[in-house]
Structure to design on (657 residues):
């Protein structure tokens, strides 16, 4: 029974890593920019929800605060691309990496200045509740994380395969020039991709803040999510979720069955092994260039 | 404008292009040597700090600016340098003059070994691998507690050379001169490396791996060498940081330090030794500048002192964003533009240093 509880909490953590990793991969696929600030956007989304919802701040109803926060984060994502990232077009990837790291620093400072540096929890209606399934006690928050992730994956799948915008994003990610010739407004699609990633970050943040406490440095979680994205295969949406689940599951199990210190090390060891033996991740997307 | 007639092959690779340049560098050196006579002990400590950061910056600049390989985890080599140097002194009883070079050599060898498997990686994947290495180093320091002292850390002994003590507080002038001497040595070595075949191979690999291979450069060996040299130089800075801090643990050289280092050389100007120094100046004196600004602001508004945690990092980040957007060549690049403007005075053209707009180079197809 112990293992099952570890499994559920690992899955729940993994879902959050996976959602953040999904944000990375969305942006990377569409714009080839690597957004190291995705973890900080998650943190910011969580804090915005918390600021709207918690009694100590604005005290809006939960179901009003959540869509508002998602909308705000989507707007932030859109503006970030339209005002900052678009100017970096054509520069090296590393320059974009450094830029987004710097943006993350700024986001961390803003969150700390507004909401303080103490860890806080989101006062959501499901916090602290439990479900019993055949004698095992599971946190409702953890179950909710898993359910939301599954639903969100389905919604994203439909979005990418059925809607015009989703198809336009796919086209842009495959070949920008061809997409442009086909009449797709590539720049706006890029910005909308950033908006989508912002919304995803907000959802991940809400789930994270429901499950545990959040503080301005929680954005560093993004590094682990980044490892997850690479393990799964950078540039593959299912790969991002898979990588997130792997990292999420490996952490509690290695802490339980190897030694406490190993839960921190294992994700990165797996990352290094993957990078050495299968550099493009489990679900690879890179093809060799033919000369 | 100065016209330099090149009358020999040496003129192309000489360390200074003309006598006036040599004169200015010597003047700068003289000013640097005379600095302890001008500054009080606090500012001198800051100046020493800047020099140590400049050494670390040169280490990373060699890798990022000249060999073109990104590293988001250089704090790992700082840590390795600090721990190796201190352990060699306290456990093996070696004097500072031996432990410092040995620490550098150890770091270089470890870096060469570690980079063998990740040498196949490019661009962003390499950056992630180095990031993972840096995070792992922090955890390994905790796991190797019998050696490293784990979370409680290690105490670095005072630097002692032939019986002379270089404590930070009792002999700040001596420590400054010592660090300055090390800095000058490394700078000269770096400048000489760049005009030697190895340094040119680095630049060739940076600009195009395929062309470099076509020209007969052994790309994998060159990259490994760049990593090893970079790690060795960074380790020297790490050892000095350890001595200056007095005590350090796994948190001292964390991932944020790696990112600071990278940001520092970007602000200074990638691809130039000057950039490492200019970046170090920015990172060294930014806290002082913010403190001055803060007290001035508080005085003007008539309110008490304002303290906002994380302000320095945020301002540093904002400066970096501004540089990346408006002057990606960094401070040194801007200085070259200004100097050219004056040298050519009425004839400077606006497009002279115009950045080439290149199409997005996809990493998905290689």
């Amino acid at each position: 029974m112990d293992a099952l509880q570890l499994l559920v909490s690992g899955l729940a953590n993994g879902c959050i890593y996976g959602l953040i990793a999904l944000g990375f991969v969305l942006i990377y696929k569409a714009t080839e920019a690597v957004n190291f600030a995705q973890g900080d956007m998650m943190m910011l989304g969580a804090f915005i929800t918390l600021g709207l919802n918690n009694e100590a701040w604005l005290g809006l109803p939960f179901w009003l605060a959540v869509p508002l926060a998602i909308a705000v984060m989507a707007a932030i994502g859109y503006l970030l691309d339209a005002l900052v990232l678009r100017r970096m077009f054509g520069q090296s990837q590393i320059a974009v990496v450094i830029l987004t790291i710097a943006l993350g620093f700024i986001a961390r400072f803003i969150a700390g200045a507004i909401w303080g540096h103490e860890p806080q929890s989101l006062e959501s209606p499901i916090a602290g509740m439990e479900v019993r399934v055949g004698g095992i006690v599971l946190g409702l928050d953890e179950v909710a994380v898993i359910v939301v992730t599954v639903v969100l994956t389905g919604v994203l799948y439909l979005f990418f395969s059925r809607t015009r915008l989703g198809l336009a994003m796919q086209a842009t990610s495959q070949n920008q020039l061809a997409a442009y010739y086909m009449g797709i407004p590539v720049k706006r699609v890029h910005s909308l991709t950033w908006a989508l990633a912002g919304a995803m970050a907000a959802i991940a943040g809400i789930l994270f803040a429901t499950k545990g406490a959040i503080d301005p440095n929680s954005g560093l979680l993004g590094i682990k999510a980044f490892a997850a994205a690479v393990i799964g295969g950078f540039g593959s949406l299912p790969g991002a979720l898979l990588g997130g689940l792997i990292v999420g599951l490996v952490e509690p199990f290695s802490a339980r069955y190897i030694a406490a210190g190993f839960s921190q090390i294992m994700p990165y060891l797996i990352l290094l092994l993957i990078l050495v033996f299968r550099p493009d991740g489990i679900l690879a997307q890179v093809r060799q260039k033919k000369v | 404008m100065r016209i330099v007639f090149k009358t020999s092959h040496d003129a192309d690779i000489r360390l200074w292009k003309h006598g006036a340049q040599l004169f200015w560098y010597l003047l700068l050196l003289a000013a640097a040597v005379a600095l302890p006579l001008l500054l009080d002990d606090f500012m001198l400590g800051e100046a020493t700090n800047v020099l140590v950061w400049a050494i670390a910056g040169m280490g990373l600049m060699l890798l990022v600016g000249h060999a073109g390989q990104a590293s988001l985890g250089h704090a790992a080599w700082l840590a390795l340098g600090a721990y190796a140097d201190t352990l060699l002194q306290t456990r093996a009883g070696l004097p500072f003059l031996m432990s410092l070079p040995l620490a550098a050599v150890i770091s270089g060898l470890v870096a060469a070994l570690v980079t063998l498997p990740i040498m196949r990686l490019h661009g962003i994947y390499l950056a992630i691998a180095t990031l993972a290495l840096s995070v792992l180093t922090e955890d390994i320091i905790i796991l190797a507690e019998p050696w490293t002292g784990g979370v409680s850390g290690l105490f670095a002994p005072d630097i002692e050379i032939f019986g002379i003590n270089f404590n930070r507080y009792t002999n700040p002038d001596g420590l400054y001169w010592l660090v300055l001497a090390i800095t000058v040595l490394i700078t000269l070595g770096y400048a000489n490396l760049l005009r030697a075949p190895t340094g040119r191979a680095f630049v060739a690999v940076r600009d195009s791996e395929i062309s470099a291979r076509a020209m007969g450069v052994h790309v994998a060996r060159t990259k490994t060498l760049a990593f090893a040299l970079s790690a060795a130089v960074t380790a020297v800075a790490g050892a000095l940081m350890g001595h200056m801090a007095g005590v350090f643990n796994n948190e001292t050289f964390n991932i944020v330090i790696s990112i600071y280092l990278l940001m520092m050389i970007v602000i200074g100007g990638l691809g130039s030794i000057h950039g490492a120094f200019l970046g170090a100046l920015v990172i060294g004196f930014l806290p002082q500048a913010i403190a001055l600004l803060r007290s001035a602001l508080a005085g003007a508004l008539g309110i008490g002192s304002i303290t906002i945690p994380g302000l320095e990092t945020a301002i540093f980040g904002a400066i970096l964003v501004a540089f990346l957007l408006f002057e990606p060549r960094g401070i040194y690049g801007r200085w070259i533009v200004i100097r050219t403007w004056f040298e050519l005075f009425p004839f400077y053209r606006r497009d002279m240093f115009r950045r080439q707009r290149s199409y997005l180079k996809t990493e998905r197809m290689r």
Summary: Residues 273-301 of chain B form the longest helix (29 residues). The radius of gyration of chain B is 22 Å.
